[in-house]
Structure formats: C-alpha cells, structure tokens
Amino acid sequence: MSKLSGTSIELPVFDIFKPLNPSSLSSLSLACKEWGFFHITNHGVSKDLYNKLYSLSTQLFKLPLESKLKAGPSSSIKTYTPRFIASPFFESFRVSGPDFFSSAQSSALLLPNQQDSEFSEILKEYGSKMTELSKRIIEVVLMSMGENFENKFYDSEFRNCHGYLRIINYTPPANVEEEEEVEGLGMHTDMSCITIVCQDQTGGLQVRSKEGKWMDINPCEGTLVVNIGDLMQAWSNGKLRSSQHRVVLKRFVNRFSLAFFWCFDDKKLIYTPKEIVGEEHLRVYKPFICADYLKFRESREEGKFEKVGLTVKDFAGTEG
Ligand SMILES: O=C(O)CCC(=O)C(=O)O
Ligand SMILES: [Fe+2]
Fold first, then answer.
1. Which of 55, 118, 162, 184 could tie 247 with a disulfide, CB 3.0–4.6 Å?
2. Which residues form the Fe2OG dioxygenase domain (predicted)?
C-alpha cells in the first residue's frame, strides 16, 4: 500500500444562519465551483448531542457481528452495512428520514437495556437538525448562483427533497507500516444534492482537485463539512461541482463519522431551468429521472455502493 497523504486545503467557513453578504456569497459560489466543498458553523449540533450520539453509536458498533447482521444486508431491515462491502475497514448504520425515530429504532433494538429509545431520540434530534440545515444550505447555494434564484427555484425544485444519515465506523488495519495510510473509503462522488459530514478529530477526508491531486480537509473544531453531490451538479448544468473524495485512515486510529445525504425525490425529473443554463451555454446533461441514476450507480457498483468509476456525467452527460 502506498503513502496516501495529500496537501491541506483551506476551505471557507460560513456562519450558515446569518444573512450572507455579497462577498460571502461570491466566496461560496467560488468554493462550490472549484471544490464543491466548504465548512459551516452555527449548525446547531451541540457538543452534548454529538457526544451522546458518538457514545451510543460506538456501543452499537461494538456489538458482536452476528447481532449487527440482524440489521444487515441479508436481513429484512437492511440498515447495517458490514465491513468488506464499501471497504474492508468501513461499516455503517443507515437512518432514514423523515421519521428518524422509527428508522433508528430498527437498529437501536439491538442495544441492551432501554438505550434503544435514548439512541432513537438522539437520532431524531440529529436528523431534524440536518434536515433544517440542508434546507438552509440549498437556499444559500441557490442565492450564490444568481439573484433571487432561491425564491425562483426553492419551492418548485427542492420542496420534496428527503434525507438519510449514515453513521460510519472505520476500523484501521493493524498490519501496515508506520506513517502509512490506507483507504477507509475509496474515491467516489456522492449521489445526493448536498451532503453534510461530521468527521472526528482524526481527519482523513480528502478531496481530489481538478488536476487530480488529493487534498486533506483537516478537521476544524465546531464546524461541519458540506459537499455538493451529483444530483446538484447535474441540476446546475455543471455550475456546481460534485468532487471526487475519499477517506484515508491512520494506523491504529479508529475513525467515526456522520454523513447526511439530502436528495431529490426519486421520481423527480432533473432538468436544469433555462435561467440557470443561460443563453450562451449549452446543456451538458440530458434530463433524467433521479431514481434511474441511483439504479445506474447501484447496478454498476456490484454492491460496492460508493466506490465508483462512473458518475452522473457518464449517465446523462451530453459531452463525450
Ligand atoms: O466518513 C467521511 O468522512 C465521509 C464519508 C463519505 O464520503 C460518504 O459516506 O459518502
Ligand atoms: Fe462521500
């Protein structure tokens, strides 16, 4: 395995619920175009909420594999993804909205002694915070794209979005050389409109530059990472960038993260409004139904649901 570390990148940080002035909007627009990644503060996830979620999730991951597999891919629940699917080091539980409580309950029931309802309550709170944040992020991203775009397009295009959370535990391999790093999650793009990631102090999230260089997104206390996904890249006619990214692990260091995906409704037709395409530009995506793209990705990835070579460009791009 090769050395995987990159160079660090300084992403802009936005106080998400404050009105954004013209200079913040242009810096947001630049970040979405160049990197498809930025940081947010004032997100409403308190340390206490995070710590409770961390500690209960850790207990869930510590359960014996046979218990976790009761919520696994071959059970009726299908919220647990064991190791060796996305990568040998990655395992996760999925919690879907809008009813995060009952979705969490299906995995939480594996926990002993009434911790299940505490866990589900916490996930309900986290899910509702992420929902509120996602709506606000879409609003400010639309604002950064053009005058009044949030009023023109939010209701007609984004009102039926929905979200789901992936709680991820990365267990690093022990048998690697010192200083060596391995991929906990391989290079991929997200199939969302936007994703909100809470990475712990270990770091390891990397974004690939347009030139193909891996850049470290260092953990930044009190902030969350936001990235643009494929659905938003297609909807914006490529004006917003869904960047390839991955997670690298350090020897002996366990990594915990929360990734929240905010997506279009499955039945939505993704077709860039003409005001966004602009008169002087061509459409770079054919219109497509959201679910058809998700199916395309699933069928190509042979179960490795996030490890991709193919993206929305291969699916609906109009340029060879
Ligand atoms: O674990 C992380 O920090 C990011 C995970 C991620 O990129 C994903 O689940 O799509
Ligand atoms: Fe991702």
1. 184
2. 161-264
Closest residue CA from atom 8 of ligand 1: 259
Cα(158)–Cα(199) distance, integer angstroms:
26
Which atom number of ligand 1 is nearest to the Cα of residue 199? 3
CA distance 157 to 273: 9
| Beta bridge partners of residue 270, listed in sequence order | 288
Closest residue (by CA) to atom 7 of ligand 1? 246
Residue nearest to atom 2 of ligand 1 (CA): 257
Instruction: ipTM value, please give it.
Output: 0.99
- CB of 245 within 6 A of ligand 1: the answer is yes
Residue 50 alpha carbon to ligand 1 centre in Å: 17
Q: What is the pLDDT along the chain (320 residues), one digit of tens a residue?
A: 445 556 999 999 999 999 999 999 999 999 999 999 999 999 999 999 999 999 999 999 999 999 999 999 999 989 999 999 999 999 999 999 999 999 999 999 999 877 889 999 999 999 999 999 999 999 999 999 998 999 999 999 999 999 999 999 999 888 777 667 799 999 999 999 999 999 999 999 999 999 999 999 999 999 999 999 999 999 999 999 999 999 999 888 999 999 999 999 999 999 999 999 998 889 999 999 999 999 998 876 654 544 456 789 889 998 75
Residue with tokens 């909420």: 49
Structure tokens at 151: 């009023």
Cα dist from 124 to 52, 98, 137, 169, whole Å: 13, 9, 20, 20
